[in-house]
Amino acid sequence: MAAASGVSRATVSFVLNDDPRQSISAATRDRVRQAARDLGYVPHGVARALREGSSRVVVLDLDRGLEGNYSRSYVRGLDDELAAHGHVLLVRHGQHSAEATRQVLDAITPRAMIRFAEPYLTGHDLEDRGGGWKDGLAAHAALQIRHLAEHGHTRIALALPEEDSAPARARRRFAEHTVHSLGMPPLVPVTVPRPRRAGTGAVAGLREAHPEVTAVAAFDDDLALRTLTALHDLGLAVPGDMAVIGYDDTEYGELSTPALTTVHIDAEAHGRLAARTALGLDSAGLVPVPARIIVRESV
């Protein structure tokens, strides 16, 4: 490439690595990049990893049960931002043991490993990175509860997954905080399990034990749809006998009867912020889009 573009090897290296410390004219940069295209140059990943101390791969751990619109938009933003800075995203699905993680570290020496939505899930003091009461899980949990309160529902059940998890515990904590701040009675936790008959039994038990409950706020759209099905099987009207609100705006909610009211979260900015944090870059100017209620028929 140096011979083809008429410059030194050092200049080629500076251009290909986009070294900000070098003042190289735009014309020279264009000439080197054109030579790279003409010659079909691609970086040697192993050699570059040896020189830089890590590969240009960033690994994202995405736990089971967290897939949905939020995760898709988060991954899209993360992938696009990493690509813009010359890095590649590798997504690992499922539960990840320490041994499996060590194998990944040894095999590809990633630039960084990210746990999906960790800032979003972990607290109150991470407003600018997605967590807390501004643009994070706490704010989105509050949005769901407040929508029910605005429609006159003061006794609310919170439908949670059967499996205990950090996201479920955090959602319950934030939702409880919201009803307390609104002066409402405590939430009634309920699980709506699979299969269909079991879910119907759980909702029937909720109705019998807590006839004062008029609305269900679900951990996600999947649980909300199970609740809708159970109410249908019990011969109850939605929203007449019981209102139901989902979370994460999956496509199936729009296809149900009645169509599911839900919380829509665009997490692309959260993903981009995670990418810049992982690469040690300035995140100024990246602002998450506020979540919003998708108003349909179930509330």
Secondary-structure map:
Elements: H1 2-5, H2 9-16, H3 26-39, H4 45-52, E1 57-62, H5 69-84, E2 88-93, H6 98-108, E3 112-115, H7 118-121, H8 132-135, H9 137-150, E4 156-160, H10 166-181, E5 188-191, H11 196-209, E6 215-218, H12 221-233, E7 243-245, H13 251-255, E8 262-264, H14 268-279, E9 292-294
How would you sum up this structure, described in words?
This protein has 299 residues and is of the alpha/beta class. The protein contains 14 helices and nine strands. The strands form three sheets. A four-stranded parallel sheet has the order 5-4-6-7, sandwiched between helices. Strands 2-1-3 form a three-stranded parallel sheet, with helices on one face. Helix 5 links the parallel strand 1 and strand 2. The N and C termini lie far apart (64 Å). About 3% of the residues have low confidence.
The ordered string of helix (H) and strand (E) elements is: HHHHEHEHEHHHEHEHEHEHEHE
DSSP, total strands: 9
Instruction: Identify low-pLDDT runs.
Output: 123-131
Could you estimate the helical fraction of the residues in percent? 40-55%
Shape field = elongated
Provide the residue-averaged pLDDT.
88
Number of helices: 14
Estimated structural class? alpha/beta
> Which band does the percent of strand residues land in?
5-15%
Describe the biggest sheet?
4 strands, parallel
Query: Compute the gyration radius: what is it?
Result: 25 Å
Give the N-to-C terminal Cα separation: 64 Å
Strand order of the largest sheet: 5-4-6-7
